[in-house]
Amino acid sequence: MVDVWLPYGKTDVCVRVPARNLLGTIEPKERQGAVDAKAEVERALKEPIGSKRLSEIAKPESKVAIVVDDATRKVPSEVLLLPVLAELNAAGVKDENVTVIFGCGTHRAVKPEEATALVGAEALKRVKAISHDCRAADLVHVGTTKTHGNKVYVNRVFAEADVKVLLGDVGFHYYAGYGGGRKSVLPAVSGEETIKHNHAMLLHANARTGILEDNPVHRDMTEAARLAKVDFIINVVENKKGEIVKAFAGDLEQAFMEAVKLVDEMYRITVDRRADILVVSAGGHPADMNLYQAYKALDNALDAVKRGGVIILVAECPEGHGNQVFYDWMTRLGDLKNVEHEVKRNFVMGGHKAYYLLKALQNHQIILVSSLPDYYATSIFKLKTARAVNDALAEALKIVGSASRVWAMPQGSYTLPIFKAPEETNT
Q1: How far is CA 166 from the centre of its chain?
Q2: pLDDT at res. 72
Q3: 3-class state of residue 173 by DSSP
Q4: Which of 6, 21, 101, 349 is spaced 20 to 30 A from 73 at the CA atom?
Q5: Which runs of E-coded beta strand occur in 204-359?
Q6: Percentage helix, strand, coil, to 5, in the chain?
Q7: If DSSP codes are grouped into helix, strand and coil, which group holds residue 308?
């Protein structure tokens, strides 16, 4: 027997896999955080990629809009914002000519206490801060995307700024391929119809985690950000502890693509065979706070398990399902065809999780090890359940056979295994 420890909430559980069955563990290539995060951001600002320095782009009289993430994302915006303000001040820009826009997309406005937590008290004393409202009456039309005919409406303050700056982080994203870069325009400061038009394309075969090539969601987002005339971005890549590993500043696309390379280097792992059974942990707290968050780990695991195989998701879920839209769509729509129709007709954030879960269930059996009541797990979310991870493994071996090969993935939310047959790996 081989003992593999898997994070579960704020503790760990041990799965015991017979040595003859275990293919191994799939883990990210972890990198140390920068010794001084602020210094790393300042370095990136001094060495922009494919662009002049921000202090050369801005003029003393420039009105500047800086987009930062809202409270739904854990981005170190404060560490990014203060060096950006220093760079603008060096160009002669006064603080009163700078507006920070919380890129809320379709989410609610940022509360005052959240604003302080996101960007810090010092920045809020110095510059104006507003929350984007995707349903505002005074959105500005900046053009229509050529490839997908999306009418791009954006926040007025953003549209009318002389200098437009985006702050964020780059990591894997379900249907945009990667977060960061252009996502700070669409969806962050775009109109509701623009966002819905874009997100409905998540049904496309290439709208997937870690895919940018021929990904219509990504292409449309990039075109929208170009139409909005973004001047400068600063994005960071973090390790799973949330520490900044490296910062990337400069051109909207070039700086973003350099960040993508680092994400791949750290978190994209090639596997040369698919397992019959894959045991995946979301990575413990906070990644497994609820099923909505923990599902990311399951989605990431799909390429490393055979069609018809079993995935065991180990996620405590102390806060239950975690998203009302996810719950409602699973309850009300119930099957993949209905969900696909609803995505095209009236996309709502949260509904995409119902789509992905039902799609995964078409080709795999999924056993959930969690504190979620069985009624919810089985009746609403259509998952099998087990009280303990070793019970789940015993059940999986019954389903697919005692000789089944097993991968274990302890950091599922932070790892993207990509299957490549051995002959592909050697070319």
Answers
A1: 16
A2: 66
A3: strand
A4: 6
A5: 232-238, 244-250, 268-271, 275-281, 305-314
A6: 40, 25, 35
A7: strand
Domain 2-27+269-426 has CATH 1.10.10.10: no
Please state, for a pLDDT cut of 90, what percent of the chain lies above it. Answer: 90
Whole-number pLDDT of residue 30: 86
Q: Which residues of 331-348 are buried (b: 16+ CB within 10 A; e: fewer)?
A: eebeeeeebeebbeeebb
| pLDDT of 74 higher than 80 | no
Q: Which single residue is written with the structure tokens 């195989």?
A: 309
- Stated pTM of the model: 0.91
| 142 Cβ contact partners less than 8 Å away, ≥ 6 residues apart | 152, 153, 154, 159, 224, 227, 228, 229
Q: Give mean pLDDT, residues 334-344.
A: 92
R_g of the chain computed on alpha carbons: 22
CATH architecture of 37-238: 3-Layer(aba) Sandwich (3.40)
pLDDT digits (tens, 9 = 90+) for 173-193: 989 999 999 999 999 999 999
State the span(s) of the chain assigned CATH 3.90.226.30.
2-27+269-426
Q: What is the mean pLDDT of residues 145-157?
A: 97
Contact assessment for residue 313 and residue 408, using Cβ atoms and an 8 Å cutoff: no
